[in-house]
Amino acid sequence: RKASARLPPGPRPLPLLGNIHQLPKDHPQMAFAEWGKKYGGLVHAKIFGTSMLIINSINVARDLMDKRSSIYSGRPRFAFVAEMLGWENGIVVTDYNDNWRKQRRWMVEAFSKTALTNIRPILRRESCKALSSIMNSPQSWKEHIARYTGSAVLEIAYGHQATPEDGDFFEMSEKATVMTAEAGSAGGMLVDFFPLLKYYPLWLPGSGFKANALKVRSFVRKVVEIPFNNVKKQMAMGTAKPSLTTNLLEEAYRKGTLDEDEGDIRDAAAGLYGAGTETTNATMTTFILAMVIHQDVFKKVQEEIDRVVGQDRLPDVQDKDSLPYFKCVFLEVLRYLSPVPLGIPHKASKEDLYQGYLIPKDSFILGNIWAMAHDEETYSQPELFLPERFLEMDQSDGTILDPRTYTFGFGRRICPGKELAEESIFILISRIIATMNISRAKDEKGRDIVPSFDITSGLSCHPKPFDCVITPRSPRAIRLISEAALSN
Ligand code: HEM
């Protein structure tokens, strides 16, 4: 059957180059979704000599990446992000092998239910700091949100409790992660498919991608090495605080595997920073943007928090299940943005046959999460931001697809930080909404500025800068924030 099988349908390739001329520079997820309308849930394209399979349908994604996960859990060679930008050997880019299995086990333990209980106090404390910073300098709200996420991941990974002196480190890591996310667009994809481009001379025209990669690389290497080396020094002096890194280094020392594991521990910890911060920040920034655009939704979700939590304390994890409308807004934010729109590519580690089509060995497999989130058959009027669509989800027992079932990827590679992401977003955003008013900025004539939903393009996406006004909603809220900041 394999001999007679055809490749899945897709746009016609040119000899040698394949479909490279049809690869859009920006927001490829949207163009790939259009291909899906023409060719179906599984689209084949060729980039140079390599097959790229774009999965636009949730059912195909489940059939291949969930049900046949022994074939579809590998990663292709990431010549751009791993080799050029310097995110080498970490769990995110490692192929499906023993090294990945080891790092994956570390991650699953790091974000188990028990571990999350230990992480909660960090999120509570850092969210109070963030609220206080937003209250004092609301124009920098985005930086305060990013600092919240960065501080939490830094403490989980390295046990380091962030101080104002860490500003330079955060700025550098923010640059490393944001630039990585943006750099992973079309140019990066080309290097992955044609790794020889790595050697493209800097003096030739069109070498901008390489110059940019070298700049990002210097930041990435510092983000990978500085906090890890600090932990090692602190361990030697006996002053290290417990963290993922100290636990793993101690375990490796006990087992006598320190030499072989040390590099993996360093890269796995750094991978958390790379994978966990930009995605979570993008979701929280989109939440704020959605509240600015849809002021009626903001009022409704604030009323719900007032009703359930009151105004004398901050919302906390135990309130999550009592806030069904907040949950709907969160799900709609995830769906609308799709923070990692094309997922992280998987690889077919051997030739396969699916619905009569041939899937060549070593094909790049892209799960088009954005297309699944914007599929008209799954969600009516997917172009509209309508949190109410998910009220139905609970009532009709799953007839509306929960975006959490695909936004975090598929199969054995599914995001290990998804519960942490959801919890950290809940804690900070619910607390902002409980204590602040989020409103529209005014133009010079006093009219509302309604921002549009413009997002960046890349491996992970976030909203482009927009105007808004965030202010404490009452003297009572100011008191609550100040007391919470002092007691944490
Ligand atoms: C809203 C926030 C987040 C989103 C949308 C997101 C999404 C994703 C996606 C789509 C993947 C690829 C899965 C696949 O290959 O099928 C992934 C992988 C990963 N994520 Fe997340 N993520 C988020 C937050 C986090 C957080 C907070 C952490 C940890 C601090 C994290 C750690 C990871 C790691 C380590 C991987 C690689 C897993 C592997 O290759 O085995 N993520 N994430």
Distance between the termini: 65 Å
Enumerate the strands of the largest sheet in spatial order, edge to edge or round the barrel.
1-2-6-3
Give the number of helices. Answer: 17
Helical content stands at 40-55%
Poorly predicted runs of 5 or more residues: none
Number of domains: 1
Q: Pairing-aware structural class of the strands and helices? A: alpha+beta
Biggest pleated sheet: 4 strands, mixed
Specify the overall morphology.
globular
The H-level CATH homologous superfamily, spelled out, is: Cytochrome P450
Would you tell me which CATH topology applies?
Cytochrome p450
Provide the β-strand percentage band.
5-15%
CATH architecture: Orthogonal Bundle
Pathway: Secondary metabolite biosynthesis
InterPro entries: Cyt_P450, Cyt_P450_CS, Cyt_P450_E_grp-I, Cyt_P450_sf, Cytochrome_P450_fung
Family: Belongs to the cytochrome P450 family.
GO molecular function, one term: iron ion binding
Describe this structure in words.
It is found in: Membrane. One of its GO terms (molecular function) is heme binding. Pathway: Secondary metabolite biosynthesis. Keywords: Heme, Iron, Membrane, Metal-binding, Monooxygenase, Oxidoreductase, Signal, Transmembrane, Transmembrane helix. InterPro entries: Cyt_P450, Cyt_P450_CS, Cyt_P450_E_grp-I, Cyt_P450_sf, Cytochrome_P450_fung. The structure is a single chain. With 488 residues, the protein is an alpha+beta fold. The protein has a single domain, classed as Cytochrome p450 (Orthogonal Bundle), CATH 1.10.630.10. 52% of the residues lie in helices and 7% in strands. It is built from 17 helices and eight strands. Strand 4 and strand 5 form a beta hairpin. Helix 6 packs antiparallel against helix 11, helix 10 runs antiparallel to helix 11 and helix 11 packs parallel to helix 16. The model has no long low-confidence stretch (mean pLDDT 91). The structure holds protoporphyrin IX containing FE. Protoporphyrin IX containing FE (HEM) binds next to helix 4, helix 11 and helix 16.
